[in-house]
Amino acid sequence: MANLVNIGLIREEKQPQDNRVAFTPKQCQWIMHHFPQVRIYVQPSSIRAFKDEEYSQAGIPLKEDLADCDILFGIKEIPPAKLIPGKKYLFFSHTKKKQPHNQKMLQEILKKKITLIDYECLVHPDGQRILGFGFFAGIVGAHNGLMAYGEKTHSFHLKRVYTMHDFQDLIGHYFGIKLPPMKIVITGSGRVAAGALEIMGLLGIKYIPPEEYLVNQYAYPVYTQLKAGELYLRKNDKTYSRSDFHQHPDQYECRFLPYVTVSDLLINGIYWDHNIPPLFLASDLRKENFHIKVIADITDDTQGSIPCNLGDSTIENPVYGVTKDTMQQTAPYLADTVDMMCVGNLPNELPRDASQYFGDQLMKYVFEALLQPGNEMMENATITKDGQLTPHYQYLEDYASGKSED
Ligand SMILES: NC(=O)c1ccc[n+]([C@@H]2O[C@H](COP(=O)([O-])OP(=O)(O)OC[C@H]3O[C@@H](n4cnc5c(N)ncnc54)[C@H](O)[C@@H]3O)[C@@H](O)[C@H]2O)c1
User: Fold this and answer.
1) Check: CATH 3.40.50.720 for 134-347?
2) Looking at residue 1, what is its pLDDT?
3) What CATH architecture applies to the domain 5-130+351-400?
4) Catalytic entry in 14, 26, 63, 76
5) Which is the closest atom of ligand 1 to the Cα of 128?
6) Exposed/middle/buried for 396, CB within 10 Å: 0-12, 13-18, 19+?
7) Fold equal for 5-130+351-400 and 134-347
8) Known catalytic residue: 94?
9) Ligand 1 neighbours (beta carbon < 6 A)
10) Using the 8-state DSSP alphabet, how is residue 156 labeled?
11) How many helices (H) and strands (E) does the chain have?
12) Where is the active site (predicted)?
């Protein structure tokens, strides 16, 4: 038999608390069955979406001290003091863009001779990311956007997602919910958009092609979806090429404006960075014909693609209002404001399903590669190896040595 590999699922210790986990109890069972050389241990946690008893009942031992494990799986950043020297860790480190708040953690990782594989850096050969929680962010974000619209217009009431046991429970909640005639515009074509479309399907909201959506009236709720090719055109020749847009977004103009005049709810799920033009401007918000009442900004960049995103809201208080003339933050659901849903950790409202989905992707595309020494995909996602920055990530040198300001 191949050498034994001891794997540990660590307790999430970052604040605000995170209740997700890399593998559910059933997934742990599946892995140990299919990889007899693997043993999985779980560090007890009172906040994890899957209870300690669920793991022990599935035959996965609980273990406080994971010092004997070879590989440790987490989700979010790890407090530096909790990092165990010499281990191989997989988690979202948020260090590859030199994020200032994680500089100390990376320094500790180097000091403690740790190998860090970052989930965000695991990509398919065509560059598409393998792992992400976007689908469930789309589910919860679309739900919250609709919930806010129902509250604002007093036309229907949706319960909060986090009060449900899981996604199946949420589906049950939708039976009998009748939405008023309304127009919903969804932006994006990635995992977030896919989650939002799932909610449209579950609530029986009808898809309308963009050109018809703009001009027709409907006696029932409808939505349209705008992918990058429908949202952006090159300024000089009015064409769109995906790769050119990704390389030169500043040479493109945004064509979203007509949709602000006819839509009731915007669900924003596009990829955005600061070179990509926003969907509309602050000055558009002041115009008489700005019709949108609620924006579920799942993309959630403060003053990014949506100028009236004034910062994150929380799962406890997911919605705030914004005045159209002065862009001041107000209480939600006032008559003449735009209501904003800008929660940055949406999958935490549905952590059991989000964890299962994540673990499925890990098992399908990553797990075997992780056990193969020298696997190229894993090497490319390895930021540090035994406490040294790998060749791919040498550009983090100044940040890691404490010199970087950005
Ligand atoms: N609020 C939350 O809780 C939450 C959770 C997950 C994701 N998000 C955010 O939602 C947004 C969409 O996430 P997703 O999971 O759908 O992403 P994704 O990776 O599934 O899809 C992104 C889409 O953007 C395109 N894209 C990739 N690189 C691009 C570039 N350089 N320029 C233009 N387009 C590019 C891709 O082709 C793809 O169609 C991201 O900004 C993400 O950070 C928010």
Assistant:
1) yes
2) 55
3) 3-Layer(aba) Sandwich (3.40)
4) 76
5) 19
6) buried
7) yes
8) yes
9) 129, 132-134, 137, 188-193, 228, 246, 269, 271-272, 298-300, 343-346
10) -
11) 15, 17
12) 76 (proton acceptor), 94 (proton donor)
